[in-house]
């Protein structure tokens, strides 16, 4: 199963996926390319480390969504990598019908909350401020509804007494790093069954 990862940030989840691949924990999946909409994103530094093409793709003209020329550039780049699965690992743009149609049924997203609670930006901060006793992360299929597609799996973490936003964030990120490679491995085994 050919995996393409899209990300905008430091890339700790892409790192977890590539580490899982390197240590034989990614099932029949392998990462064939990484693309970012941010030229300085940490995720791009994973390319040379893991010997995977990692490329900035210009997302202009929009700031928070992928549409128009930027969308066309992303579709072309991702299509050239012939993915079976597109993994959004901290890709901070809303996908529009052009991209969703080009890779229909093949896109999954990682979100740092127990969906359907706290969709959108800053899922961890939203949950922390609401005072929940369990927080966590979700891997779900991507549809036109932001953070609304079918839930594939979740991991919950307890919010301890005295928990800070920083300590809760660290717990949730650790849960994400464990969950996402497992879901990808499971999908890859199902695809090849
Ligand atoms: C992760 O916490 C992921 O859940 C979140 O961005 C972070 C990326 O971290 N995604 C979203 O908020 C999507 N709405 P990373 O770049 O270190 O993998």
Annotated CATH homologous superfamily: Formyl transferase, N-terminal domain
Query: Helical content, roughly?
Result: 25-40%
What class would the helix/strand composition place it in? alpha/beta
Q: Quickly give the CATH architecture.
A: 3-Layer(aba) Sandwich
CATH topology: Rossmann fold
- How much of the residues is beta strand, in percent? 15-25%
Q: Count the strands? A: 9
Radius of gyration from the CA trace? Answer: 16 Å
Main sheet properties: 7 strands, mixed
Counting DSSP H or I runs of 4 or more residues, the number of helices is 6
Outline:
The protein has helices at 12-22, 46-50, 68-80, 97-102, 123-130, 165-191; strands spanning 2-7, 30-36, 54-56, 65-66, 85-88, 94-95, 107-111, 134-141, 151-158.
């Amino acid at each position: 199963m050919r995996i393409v990862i899209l990300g905008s940030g430091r890339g700790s989840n892409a790192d977890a996926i590539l580490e899982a691949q390197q240590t034989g924990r990614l099932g029949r999946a392998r990462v064939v390319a990484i693309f970012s909409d941010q030229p300085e994103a940490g995720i791009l530094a994973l390319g040379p480390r893991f010997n995977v093409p990692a490329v900035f793709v210009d997302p202009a003209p929009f700031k928070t969504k992928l549409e128009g020329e930027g969308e066309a550039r992303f579709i072309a780049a991702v299509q050239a990598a012939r993915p079976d699965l597109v993994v959004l690992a901290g890709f901070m743009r809303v996908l529009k019908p052009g991209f969703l149609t080009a890779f229909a049924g093949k896109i999954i997203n990682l979100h740092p909350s127990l969906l359907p609670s706290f969709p959108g930006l800053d899922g961890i901060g939203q949950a922390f401020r609401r005072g929940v006793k369990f927080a966590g992360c979700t891997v779900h299929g991507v549809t036109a509804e932001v953070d609304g597609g079918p839930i594939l799996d979740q991991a919950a973490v307890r919010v301890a007494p005295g928990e800070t936003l920083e300590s809760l964030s660290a717990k949730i990120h650790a849960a994400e790093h464990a969950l996402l490679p497992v879901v990808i491995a499971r999908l890859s085994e199902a695809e090849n069954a």
